[in-house]
């Protein structure tokens, strides 16, 4: 209880004014928690405000088409979050009459919601005493208690959840959880934590044993896969182009892209022109030029995309049906959105 009291007292002096903190509406808390996965708070706030303005209720989100949701999500990355958000909104609106489940056991059954998000919603909105464990919590607990178990191992996930639960103040679980997450984000930071002014300085194992930089421990990352993308940016004489929706379960599902030639390595103009895809697309005479003289390296969690944008000008194309002026209406990966901005500037 002393740990929790110290934590909550710290938060009273350092509380963050965040828009979703003004409500215990589970719809708003759910939105904020999904957005803040893999996203910094500073970036997430603008997206949260945009979403709640466009979709003030779960019914509004459920009624939107997926393409609109993905377009509004553009720039946040990890688009499966947006697809799952939309799927679950429809489920809550259509099957549960707009009523969000009120217990951890029911909340975690919803698509796209794991232990952390279910615990956050259950504790903040419904005062259920279930501890949250996110990156901030892992960092605070591993340092304070000097725990060297890898946080991304099954043993570590279990150990930290049990520990977080024992520390939880069950009389105000939502306040405790938010204070712990805030403390990790603002005070016990990944780099340069504020140890000199830390309220736990007299009992922190990492500080005493000079382990702050070593903790938390994380098992080695999955090997990064290199991929080589060549986008064909078509412009016809009447300003038409080709965009198509990415299907399947790979990256960018549901987003739009220019025709893509993926290669084993960096390829040149002659190799592009002689490729099967290029030949199938263009029957008329074309002019082709490389837009970026240096490959753009777009880094995803387990993939690095070495990208070239080829500008292909042609008189006409039966497959080019999208007006160039409408191109920004389509949800596209941030890699392509950045290209479009630069190309049009």
Automatic annotation (TrEMBL):
The keyword Iron-sulfur applies. One of its GO terms (biological process) is mismatch repair. CDD domains: ENDO3c, NUDIX_DNA_Glycosylase_C-MutY. It is an enzyme of class 3 (hydrolase). SUPFAM superfamilies: DNA-glycosylase, Nudix. It comes from the Bacteria. Residues 35-186 form the HhH-GPD domain. Its EC number is 3.2.2.31. Its cofactor is [4Fe-4S] cluster. One of its GO terms (molecular function) is purine-specific mismatch base pair DNA N-glycosylase activity. Binds 1 [4Fe-4S] cluster. Transmembrane segments: none annotated. It catalyses: Hydrolyzes free adenine bases from 7,8-dihydro-8-oxoguanine:adenine mismatched double-stranded DNA, leaving an apurinic site. Keywords: 4Fe-4S, DNA damage, DNA repair, Glycosidase, Hydrolase, Iron, Iron-sulfur, Metal-binding. Pfam families: EndIII_4Fe-2S, HHH, HhH-GPD, NUDIX_4. Belongs to the Nth/MutY family. Adenine glycosylase active on G-A mispairs. MutY also corrects error-prone DNA synthesis past GO lesions which are due to the oxidatively damaged form of guanine: 7,8-dihydro-8-oxoguanine (8-oxo-dGTP). This is Adenine DNA glycosylase. It comes from Polaribacter glomeratus.
């Amino acid at each position: 209880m002393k740990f929790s009291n110290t934590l909550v007292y710290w938060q009273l002096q350092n509380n963050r004014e965040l828009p979703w903190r003004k409500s215990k509406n589970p719809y708003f808390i759910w939105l904020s928690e999904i957005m803040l996965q893999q996203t910094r708070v500073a970036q997430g706030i603008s997206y949260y405000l945009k979403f709640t303005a466009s979709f003030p209720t779960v019914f509004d989100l459920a009624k939107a088409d997926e393409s609109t949701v993905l377009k509004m999500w553009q720039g946040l990355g990890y688009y499966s979050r947006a697809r799952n958000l939309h799927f679950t909104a429809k489920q809550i609106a259509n099957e549960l009459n707009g009523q969000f489940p009120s217990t951890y056991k029911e909340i975690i059954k919803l698509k796209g919601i794991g232990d952390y998000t279910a615990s956050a919603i259950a504790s903040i909105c419904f005062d259920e005493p279930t501890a949250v464990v996110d990156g901030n919590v892992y960092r605070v607990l591993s340092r304070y208690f000097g725990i060297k178990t890898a946080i991304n191992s099954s043993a570590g996930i279990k150990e930290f959840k049990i520990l977080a639960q024992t520390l939880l103040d069950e009389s105000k679980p939502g306040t405790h959880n938010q204070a712990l997450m805030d403390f990790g984000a603002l005070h016990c930071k990944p780099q340069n934590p504020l140890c000199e002014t830390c309220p736990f300085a007299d009992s922190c194992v990492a500080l005493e044993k000079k382990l702050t930089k070593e903790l938390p421990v994380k098992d080695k990352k999955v090997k990064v896969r290199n991929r080589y993308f060549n986008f064909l940016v078509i412009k016809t004489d009447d300003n038409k182009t080709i965009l198509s929706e990415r299907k399947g379960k790979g990256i960018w599902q549901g987003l739009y892209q220019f025709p893509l030639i993926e290669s084993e390595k960096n390829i040149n103009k002659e190799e592009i022109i002689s490729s099967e895809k290029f030949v199938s697309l263009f029957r008329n005479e074309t002019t082709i030029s490389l837009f970026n003289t240096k490959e753009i390296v777009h880094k995803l969690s387990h993939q690095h995309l070495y990208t070239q944008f080829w500008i292909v000008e042609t008189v006409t194309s039966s497959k080019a049906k999208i007006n160039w002026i409408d191109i920004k209406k389509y949800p596209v990966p941030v890699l392509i959105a950045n290209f479009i901005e630069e190309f049009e500037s």
